[in-house]
């Protein structure tokens, strides 16, 4: 009797463990796969006939147009094209997928995390080439915005895996900022910080400083105010190794100015090219001037890089993702 009881208990225990293992395995299999791929890359699923015609030309024109503010021409996104019959396997793990087909319905659909996570799959179909072109034209701005937001979030996720100690930044500027641990303090003063990271092809830099609200005057030439502001900061703090060399906004290329919001505050975003006065060094910059009324200041975060022998799009994207992690503390 005792033997039967022990056997029954053993059987029930094994049955419970089997069910538990099956349940865990099922839950594990139900989880979405991790999306993969390099930053700012799109997998375009489209038949060769469409890709080699006007539809492909329009896709390349919109999604591989030159990035503004870079000294050399680089595409907005790197495009990898695959025929529709290959819409299985590793391509479905891509973070961004654009599916373009000729079908009996004209439609545009966005599917989140369809095959993996995080992922955006944009489905475009049309009865004719003209219909497909119209759908692309109508929705391209929305598609680009969604891709950019996802890529910034992915870069921030990568950065968050190893962050530098934020205490100096927090105490000096009353902000929280996710800066990867590869950055070191190159220079600091009461209202200024320069963080720098050495890379194989050069370096990337992040500047943080604050100036009076009056530095960007209302009803004035905003871009002229910002250029004057950043050139004065360059003259004070960002100097080269040679005598009388300091960072200025390059005269040959007019910077681009956009009005946006960071941390729900009015912000001026400026993209352009910097150079060292009386020297040959130069590169791209992105400058965010945040109107912080609560702290009675213009808070400026600027990223710039020097990488003369390599592409700079993704270096600037990393700097943008760091800056956009900002939280202004009370």
What average pLDDT do the residues reach?
Answer: 89
Judged by helices, strands and strand pairing, the structural class is alpha+beta
Low-pLDDT ranges: 6-12, 14-28
Name the beta content range. Answer: 25-35%
**Helical residues, percent:** 25-40%
What's the topology here?
Layout: H1 2-30, E1 33-34, E2 41-45, H2 48-51, H3 54-63, E3 78-82, E4 96-102, E5 107-112, E6 116-117, E7 120-126, H4 129-160, H5 167-173, E8 175-176, E9 184-189, E10 192-199, E11 202-211, H6 222-237, E12 247-249, E13 256-262, E14 265-276, E15 282-292, E16 297-306, H7 313-323, E17 327-328
Parallel strand pairs: 1-6, 2-3, 2-4, 4-7
Antiparallel strand pairs: 5-7, 8-17, 9-10, 10-11, 11-16, 12-14, 13-14, 14-15, 15-16
Helix pairs in contact: 3-4, 4-7
Provide a compact summary of the structure.
The protein has 330 residues and is of the alpha+beta class.
Structure description:
It is a single chain. By secondary structure, the protein is of the alpha+beta class. 33% of the residues lie in helices and 32% in strands. It contains seven helices and 17 strands. Helix 3 (54-63) packs parallel to helix 4 (129-160) and helix 4 crosses helix 7. The protein is elongated, with a radius of gyration of 26 Å. Residues 6-12 and 14-28 have low confidence and may be disordered.
């Amino acid at each position: 009797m005792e033997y039967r009881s022990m056997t029954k208990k053993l059987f029930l225990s094994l049955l419970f463990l089997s069910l538990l293992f099956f349940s865990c395995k099922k839950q594990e299999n139900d989880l979405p796969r991790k999306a993969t791929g390099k930053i700012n890359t799109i997998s375009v699923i489209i038949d060769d006939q469409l890709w080699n015609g006007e539809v492909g030309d329009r896709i390349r024109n919109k999604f591989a147009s030159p990035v503004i503010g870079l000294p050399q021409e680089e595409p907005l996104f790197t495009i990898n094209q695959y025929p529709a019959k290959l819409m299985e396997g590793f391509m479905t793990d891509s973070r961004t997928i654009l599916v373009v087909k000729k079908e009996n319905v004209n439609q545009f659909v966005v599917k989140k995390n369809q095959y993996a996570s995080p992922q955006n799959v944009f489905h475009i179909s049309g009865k004719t080439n003209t219909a497909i072109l119209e759908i692309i034209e109508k929705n391209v701005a929305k598609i680009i915005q969604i891709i950019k937001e996802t890529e910034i979030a992915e870069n921030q996720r990568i950065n968050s895996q190893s962050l530098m100690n934020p205490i100096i930044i927090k105490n000096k500027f009353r902000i929280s900022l996710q800066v990867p641990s590869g950055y070191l303090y190159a220079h600091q003063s009461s209202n200024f910080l320069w963080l720098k990271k050495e890379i194989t092809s050069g370096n990337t830099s992040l500047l943080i400083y604050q100036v009076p609200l009056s530095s960007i005057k209302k009803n004035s030439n905003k871009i002229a105010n910002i250029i004057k502001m950043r050139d004065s900061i360059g003259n004070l703090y960002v100097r080269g190794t040679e005598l009388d060399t300091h960072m200025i906004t390059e005269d040959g290329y007019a910077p681009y100015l956009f009005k946006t919001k960071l941390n729900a505050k009015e912000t001026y975003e400026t993209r352009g090219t910097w150079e060292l006065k009386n020297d040959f060094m130069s590169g791209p910059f992105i400058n965010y001037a945040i109107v912080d009324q609560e702290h009675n200041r213009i808070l400026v975060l600027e990223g710039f890089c020097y990488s003369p022998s390599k592409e700079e799009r993704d270096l600037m994207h990393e700097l943008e993702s760091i800056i956009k992690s900002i939280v202004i503390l009370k």
